[in-house]
Amino acid sequence: MTARGGQAAGNGWPPRALRDYAFLADGERGALIGPDGAIVWLCVPRWDSPPVFAALVGGGGGFSVTPADPWYVWGGYYEPGTLIWHSRWVGAAVTECREALARPADPDCAVLLRQIRAVDGPARVNLRLDLRGGSGRRPVRDLARSAGCWTGRAGRLWFRLSGAGRARPARDGQELALTLTLDPGARHDLVLEISSRKLTAPPPEPGVAWPATETAWAPAGPDCSGLIAARDAQHAYAVLTGLTSSTGAMVAAATTSLPERMESFRNYDYRYAWIRDQCYMGLAVAAHGPHPLLDGTVRFITERVLADGPDLMPAYTISGDPLPPERTMAVRGYPGGAAARAGNRVTGQFQLDAFGEVLQLLAAAARLGLDGPDTWRAARVAADAIGKRWAEPDAGVWELDPRRWAHSRLSCVAGLRAIAREAGHGAGRPTAGHSTGARPDAGEWSSLADQILASMHDSVHPSGRWQRAPGDPRADASLLLPVIRGAVPPDDPRAQATIAEVAASLGDDGFIYRFRHDARPLHEAEGAFLLCGFWMALTALVAGDEVAAGRWFERNRAACGPAGIFTEEFDVHQHQLRGNLPQAFVHAALLESAVRLSQVSGSAR
After folding, report:
1. Are 174 and 140 in contact (CB under 8 A)?
2. Of 4, 249, 434, 457, whose CB has the highest number of CB atoms within 10 Å?
3. For helices 275-288 and 353-367, what crossing angle results, to 10°?
4. How far is residue 560 from each of residues 8, 17, 499, 567, 569, measured CA to CA in Å?
């Protein structure tokens, strides 16, 4: 191996289409890596911290390992059931770089592992590290080399780069650059630590860190070989695991402000734990069986419900704190979007449907024998909150202006029915939740569900289907979910009419849009919503049409990039991903669809 100092051409990394990015994560933070080996997004120490690599949104900072010869084609793959990624470049030689955020994760310190491999022929790669603090505004200071490692500060963070001792400062000492040449078959390790505390211990040994990371990923998901789309289901477990903190909280996505439609101002920060999304994930995992992801999400949701009761917020930080107010970041933003933002104003919203999702999650936990005293206390609190607030306007599943959204009320009906069933089944069960003297009242919860459903006459369209809200006759794909969850049986005429109308008026080439915004063609208002496409698959399944369910499922599971990462929306006309990524609830919906389709078909493929 030879090495020499050098400087990469240009001062930034060009933006890529979202489908081109792969995702690395350790549960406490996540990174995006492009096809050229450039890591262009990473927040440290936690998901919602300012990014140290912000090139994705037009800020400063990135860390690249790229073939020195530009005449190459790129590819890559994940090791099965993990987020250990292999960047692969084929040119005059074949070079790979094995990439991972080390696990088990330290909440205060990110450890990036990169192993360059000369697979076929010699490898020659350029390394470039431009680490920034304060969302890319604060360059490196105190840069120094000692014992073969480079160390320095970036804002309030410390960093150390091992394996690149012969790198040289470039661009006024604000970054490091190095060209490495490896003999055929050789490997070279790089380890980058970025920490909120001073790095005093010796740097990690790659020979220890890599096996530890592999071991930590080993239990990420159960055996999925009996499921249809087994590889995609296994990958969904890995993505959901990567997005889930040790607190049990799962962030909705790893990024902020990636536009949901080109030239759109609808850009949001999704680096927080949404109650609704967390429940969607828990229900997907519960459909497959007990799993640590389910344990963690039940714990986090239970804690939040017991702490905040009827004032439950729509989203929290992964530590359970309120979200910070929205503010604009001093970066250019991803192409086609507005200025990048940090924080989220959703905290001030009331979302009634979240209580229904909570009850469905707690019922699933009880069904699997995971209930305890807190489970039933939280169920009582959530049911009481519904009883107190179900007639109030709320922001709804799409977080819009407060109205009496039909989906929100039907979600509560489904949740109350689900928890009442489990309470009734467990009436003689010797669980701690039933021995406290506050035995769940299945009859009371069923009666409340009936009362809410009886009020729904104001949201029935003249054609006999559900409509969005009183006074809003439009169809809405969210009204598929109560059919899936059992608010009404699938042969209910209102449900059947709703399914038909959603497919006819909101479907396009096998994809589903949320609702019609105005008189424009659907694709001009926003992208197709992948969550809704999987809901259509599940709806067809509960209606008994396995062929249609399979078609909806296959079409929507194909709407990802080469790394198998889904965003929130899909541009049907341009076949491009739109919005933040990875979008957790889309991966959860794929997993649940694969599980339920497999349960019905009894086959795997």
Report:
1. yes
2. 249
3. 30
4. 31, 12, 25, 8, 10
Hey, what are 85's tokens? 């990624």
Q: What's the pLDDT tens digit per position in 42-81?
A: 999 999 999 999 999 998 899 999 999 999 999 999 999 9
Tell me the C-alpha distance between 343 and 256, whole Å.
9
- Residue 327 DSSP code: E
For 168, counting Cβ atoms within 10 Å of its Cβ (0-12 exposed, 13-18 middle, 19+ buried), the class is middle
Supply the pTM of this predicted model.
0.95
Helices 406-425 and 442-454: angle between axes, nearest 10 degrees: 160
Q: Distances in Å between the alpha carbon of 11 and those of 7, 55, 131, 264, 423? A: 10, 10, 13, 27, 61
> What are the φ and ψ backbone dihedral angles of 394, each rounded to 5 degrees?
-140, 175
Backbone angles phi, psi at 580, to 5 degrees: -70, 155
Other beta carbons within 10 angstroms of residue 547's beta carbon come to 7
3-class DSSP assignment, residue 176: strand
Whether residue 251 contacts residue 272, with contact meaning beta carbons closer than 8 Å, is answered with yes
Question: Quick one: the chain helix, strand, coil %, rounded to 5?
Answer: 35, 25, 40
C-alpha to C-alpha distance for 119 and 458, rounded to whole angstroms: 66
Please, are residues 108 and 195 in contact by the beta-carbon 8 Å criterion? yes
Six token digits for residue 70: 């530009």
Is residue 134 within 8 A of residue 55, CB to CB? The reply is: no
Rounded CA Rg of the chain = 25
Q: Which two tokens stand for residue 359?
A: 């009850």
Please state, as a whole number, how many other Cβ atoms lie within 10 Å of the Cβ of residue 450: 13
Please give the Cα distance from 99 to 190 (Å, whole number). 10
Written as six digits, the tokens of 568 are: 């929130």
* Model confidence pLDDT, tens digit, residues 185-233: 999 999 999 999 999 999 999 999 999 999 999 877 899 999 999 999 9
Backbone phi, psi, residue 305, to 5°: -65, -45
Tell me if 351 sits within 8 A of 392, measured CB to CB: no
Output the furthest CA–CA distance in the chain (Å, rounded): 77
Cα–Cα distances (Å) from 64 to 18, 114, 175, 177, 471, in that order, read: 17, 10, 12, 10, 54
In contact, 222 and 236? CB cutoff 8 Å: no
pLDDT tens for 426-472 read: 654 544 344 343 446 889 999 999 999 999 999 999 999 999 999 99
270-287 burial, b if ≥16 CB within 10 A, otherwise e?
bbbbbbbbbbbbbbbbbb
CA of 170: how far to CAs of 62, 153, 167, 174, in Å? 14, 16, 9, 6
Tell me the residue type at 13.
W
Are 424 and 501 in contact, with CB atoms under 8 Å apart?
Answer: no
Over the chain, what is the mean pLDDT? Answer: 92
